[in-house]
Each structure stands twice: as C-alpha cells, then as structure tokens.
Amino acid sequence: MKVLSVASEVYPLIKTGGLADVAGALPSALAAHAVEMQVLLPGYKQVMAKLPNPVRLLEFDDLLGAQAAVLACRMDGVQYLVLDAPSLFDRDGGPYTDAAGADHPDNWKRFAALSRAAATIAEDGIDGWIPDIVHAHDWQAGLTPAYMKHGKAVATPTVMTVHNLAFQGQFGPDIFPDLGLPQSDFAMTGLEYYGDVSFLKGGLQMASAITTVSPTYAQEIRTPDFGMGLDGLINARADALHGIVNGIDTKVWDPGTDTMIAANYTHSKLKKRQPNREALAERFGFADTDGPVFTVVSRLTWQKGIDVLAEIVDDIVAMGGKLAVLGSGDQALESALQAAADRQHGHVGLVIGYDEALSHLMQAGGDVILVPSRFEPCGLTQLYGLRYGNVPVVARTGGLADTIIDANEAAIAARVATGFQFGPVTPDALREALRRAIRSFADPKVWARLQNQGMNADVSWDRSALRYASLYAELLASKSENP
Ligand code: ADP
Q1: pLDDT, tens only, 374-416
Q2: Ligand 1 pocket test: which of 165, 249, 299 has the largest number of ligand atoms within 8 Å of its C-beta?
Q3: Is residue 379 in contact with ligand 1, taking CB distance under 6 Å?
Q4: What is the pTM of this model?
Q5: Pick the CATH number of 270-455 from 3.40.50.2000, 1.20.1250.20, 3.30.70.580, 3.30.70.2190
Q6: Could you check whether the bond before residue 182 is cis, i.e. omega within 30 degrees of 0?
Q7: Does the C-beta of 454 come closer than 6 Å to ligand 1?
Q8: Is the pLDDT confidence value at 482 over 80?
Q9: What is the SS3 assignment for 339-367?
Q10: Is 120 in the pocket of ligand 1 (CB under 6 A)?
C-alpha cells in the first residue's frame, strides 16, 4: 500500500510537539506492515537547511499565488517530500509563528498550499508514485480531503487524524474565495463554522475515516466538554471514528543507547541511572540529590494544567521533593514558575525554552514525570517516562488514562502498576497524587518494581502501526466494493 502522509511538522526535520514525533515515527513503523509511506511537509527555513541532496520533482507556478516546488529527499530510510515555497515558508520564527511569537497572518494560505500540493500529488502522482491512501494530520493538512473531493483523486480514501481538537485552523470568511474551492463548500456540511472557515472541520467532514490518538480521547471528543464545538459533527461521523493510541520511536528513545544522556542503563541496571540524576541536579541547580525529583517537559499552558502545578510548588518542596521544569508557553505561567524557582532556590529549577537533549536527560535523571493535563489526546512524555524509569503521575484523561496503570492495591499486587493517576485536575488531587508517589518512592523495592514494570510496558508502535495498516486496508477494500 502506498500512503501519502501530510503534516506540518515531522521529527527530526522540525518539531514543536507530539505531532512531529508521530509523523516522524509512522513511516518506519508502517514499513513493517507493507505500507510504503512518503511524508509531505513544508519547506521551512530550518527544514531546507537540513536536506542532503534534494531532488526537484514537481513545480507549481501558482500554488495559491505562490511559486513552489516539491523536493524529494531520503534520510534514514524515510522518503520526505518537501514543499519548497519561499514566499510562504522561508522566514524567521517557528513553523506557525514569527520570531516574536505571533501567528503568521497568512497561515491560512501557507497550510492551504500544503493541502493543495498534497491533493495534486494524489491526483497526478509524483515521480510515477501515486498514493493509494492520503493521511492528513491536524488542521494544517485539513483541507487535503476537501481539495481531493473536487479532482480526479475523488475516489482515493483519506484519513484525517486529530492530534488535538483544540487547534482548528479557524479563519475569517474573507479568505474563502482565495482557497480555490467551490462556493458550495462554504456551508454547514463543509468548511463553514459559525460564519468562519475551519480547516479542521473541512477535514473531519470530508475524510473517509477520522482517527484520534487514543481510544479515551475518541470518546471524550463526542461530548460537549471535550468536543470544542465539533462534538455534534464528530458524533454524526462516529462510525468513521477510530482511537489509535500513539507509540514512541523506541530507537530514538532508548536509555540503553541514548547519546543525549549522561549514562546509559537498562531496567536490570537501574543503579546506572544515578549519573543522570546527578547531571540533572547540576543543570537545575539543586542543592543535593536527596528526595524524589519531579520533572515536567511541556508546553506551559492551561491545557497542560501548569497553573495547578504552580499552585502546589511549595508543597512539593515541603514534602521533600525537587521540581525540574522545561518548557515555554503562557507568559503568566512562565512568570509564576520563575517566581517559584527564585523562592525555592536549590529545590525548584526552571529552563524556559525548547531543548530536545535536555528533555532526554530529564527522563533519564528524573524520578517522576508529571503530566497534570486538563485534556490530553495522547501525551508522549508519560510514554518516554515509562521507557526511562521516570514514573508517570498523570491526570486521568485521554491518552494518559489509556497508557498508565494506576498503582492501586490490586495493580500493585498483580505487579502491573506503572504510575499514578489522579483527578480532577485540582491542587488538592494533584497534591494527594504526589503524596502517594512520595510514599512509594520511600520504599526502594516498591519503587524499583514500578520502574521495571513501566520499562517493560510495550510503548512501541507495533500494535498501533498494525491498526493503521488495517484501517488503510479496510478503506481500500470498501473502495473496491463501491468504486
Ligand atoms: P503536545 O504535542 O500537546 O505538546 P505531547 O506530550 O504529545 O504534547 O508531545 C510533546 C513533545 O514535545 C514531546 O516529545 C516532548 O518531549 C516535547 N517537548 C515539549 N516541550 C519541550 C521542550 N520545552 N523542550 C524539548 N522538548 C519538549
């Protein structure tokens, strides 16, 4: 099966969050299931700088007004298709924002162009390669199924994966005429969303199948509390909805071989984690290496429950713990954490920014990875925590609920516990969960067992890659039944 995957970020070329990890890991994970996946992504400045010997395959004179080309490049066994459109992507800043952190005003055009290019590849192929299936990720690729509906790839099945329903790509109605879609698509049954244009809604309406990144989140988004205004549509398409939990790239995230950490170790050699704990303590300015080290690697936002964390920082220290936070996000939350780090010097450390290597060291040197999200489609940091013996304490929601087995008495007795769950996301419930973790940490045998059970949990892509491959096969089979 030939599958074109379309995403706005793909690790290791460009990453701001979990989407990049998933889009980056899928091609190799699916290769084991006879799926040949090529990945289309935008040629941001950072991406163009990383491409060895790109080959120019497709030219556009007018891709939503832009001069563009698709360049092919093979790296580590993955075939990347890079949309080189300098007027859209060759600029400073991140994939979505300028250097000052403001959204690029033409994001609608940048990502409509990505989707339009994907549809063109679906229609005409690229270098003789015509995809059997097109798999679009998040709102940035959301118009792909819409464009495909109106061309000769109308019968090619499409999959729309939602990595976070909170981001919908909503723009004013004035952009609609420039998208190059028929006026009839600006309707309730198309892209129209309360008078605006929603890229994600377009994808959800028109894709052959919808997936999201955990079974629990797939159910949650059918309710008003989690549906972000799209629960009605998602319920109407419930038959096409699938929850497939993310795996992780176990080669990139392997404490036995990781070159970004201070010392390698395995589940049977947990004492060898110690140099990582020491390196972490030094990096975050801890006074000593006593007590459990709680780690957070996260966007610092309301979704991630960082405001709740900020409220109990002093309690963590009072209970004998340390806290190391890496992330960036809302200014007010960054300031609240900075104030806590200043107040609790030697016990609380904060690094504001994005640092891939430090995120690895934190998983290797921390005792607990804390994920207090109010909602979490899947979450990856708790999976990295499992793999690295950094025991997860997570809110009971979405993919966090699906991937962590709470250390209640039954689970401890059955030797299956891998972490701690709590809810609701309040200071009291979080404090209580940390207390439970600290009690377990005080008993080295109990703690080592928790670490071991986590490290032996299957967090690979094996099972989920098979589910994607089966879904693709089903879509192709129903296409040939109803041509
Ligand atoms: P989301 O995609 O909602 O931000 P996920 O848990 O799915 O959350 O994925 C986050 C990914 O980004 C993980 O790979 C995590 O390690 C990484 N990450 C988040 N913040 C940082 C940071 N400040 N520095 C390095 N890596 C980070």
Answers
A1: 999 999 999 999 999 999 999 999 999 999 999 999 999 999 9
A2: 299
A3: yes
A4: 0.96
A5: 3.40.50.2000
A6: no
A7: no
A8: no
A9: HHHHHCCCCEEEEECCCHHHHHHHHHHCC
A10: no
